User: Fold this.
Amino acid sequence: MKTKIKNYLRAGYSGLYLISPEEKRIEGELKTLAAEMKYSLYAWNAANGLLDTGTGGVIASNDPVETLDAIAGLKEKSLVLLRDFHLLLDDPHPVLIRKLKDVLQIARTQAKAVILLGCRLNLPPELEREITILDVPLPGKNELEPVLDGILESAKLKSLKDVQRDAVLDAARGLTTVEAENAFALSVIERKTVEPSIVAREKAQALRKNGLLEIVDNQESLDSIGGLNGLKNWLLCRRNAFGRKAREYGLPACKGLLIVGIAGTGKSLTAKATASVFGLPLLRLDAGKLFGGLVGQSEGNLRSAIGTAEAMSPCVVWIDEIEKGLAGSRSSGSTDGGTSARVFGSLISWMQERKAPVFMVATANDVSQLPPELLRKGRFDEMFFVDLPNPTEREAIWKIQIRKYRRNPDGFDVPQLARITEGCTGSEIEQAFIDALHQAFAEDKEPTDITLAKALTELAPLSSLMREQIAALRTWSKGRARPATPSEPSNGSTRKLAA
Ligand SMILES: Nc1ncnc2c1ncn2[C@@H]1O[C@H](COP(=O)(O)OP(=O)(O)O)[C@@H](O)[C@H]1O
Ligand SMILES: [Mg+2]
Assistant:
């Protein structure tokens, strides 16, 4: 970041807008930068006015217009950090805009620069062309290291072993320096040392504040999924794609996966298992909140969610039922001034251009709501269609579900159960087993084939009610999406995978 700003200053840029919640870190970096480039650093905030950071002397009051006049009169090679200034740009007075424009004009000729710093972007169109926007990435491991050392030192603790140190710094990625410092300190209080698990817990807590991203504590693996061997093989083939070896080999980065299909067939389950296959942390991005959010906030929230995901990369970002939020975005022009459509645009362009190793996995039940831009090449590596499970898959699902609820599949006629659950989804099979368990428990006995048969008579599979939608989905996916289940008869290698 420092080098980038240096280059802008050398090239004569006089107005920069840094987006970051990290005031302390940015001010620190600007101090070093100013010293290196032999600039004087001035800092303004709404409470204290304009200060010369070298002498601590007050140059101007907190009145913004007075401050801008003072900046115009500063000597050459001055750098001015404006901290709360973006708050004044919501509904700015014309005089303020004019003065700022004039200051930027003068600054350009005198090797001076004005740097606005805010946690969100707030720039009126009048200034868009005058000021260059820079997204400051969250701190990387090398920037978090001194923070960790600082805490260990002040707690008079020995330095951590390399493995532990690495795990702690990994767990802290995605936090600001202040948040990381707090998490380290809390861990010292709780455990007398800095532990990755405490830092990870605090990070999960910190992410919840943004509301869009959530760390998912994920236990699912491919073994929890019955069938879908085409999709499983696709994932297994790429399981080491995020390692160092893959980079050295020259493998292009994996972008992501879109899974469409009938509700209850294991799409969300597979999305979660994806993170386990890659051995990466799983972050869930809430589509409903993203696209249905408040005007003005959604864009900032997406920016910060992207920043967090990139800081945590390599990682998997999962957007469940992506069409839900998007339904609003298409008709939104009239209702929210086009915010959701713009947010969707930003998401798409990030998906296309991102360099950080972030694997996106999205699921959708209703393809008719998916905008064509999402399906264009380059957004995802592959799109899979998940159909109702075939007989072999239903057997596998029955076995998985029976084991999940701590019963032995050998005690049941699984092939027969698979036969009589034609048209049922994995989710319905699970529900039937749960119903049978309740029934048996109420009668103070163990569930049997008979209990199950009874539970199944009361089940009306969704597929019988949604015949038309399912047929439409099948037609739509033909030629567009790859089947998650390879067509029968399956060959030896796929059969081996069935649970
Ligand atoms: N293929 C499957 N194998 C094993 N369990 C399944 C399968 N499909 C669905 N299930 C069960 O149904 C639950 C709900 O499935 P889910 O993944 O949420 O479906 P979807 O996202 O496609 O609507 C899962 O948590 C799992 O217990
Ligand atoms: Mg789902």
Remarks:
- The two ends are 49 Å apart (CA to CA).
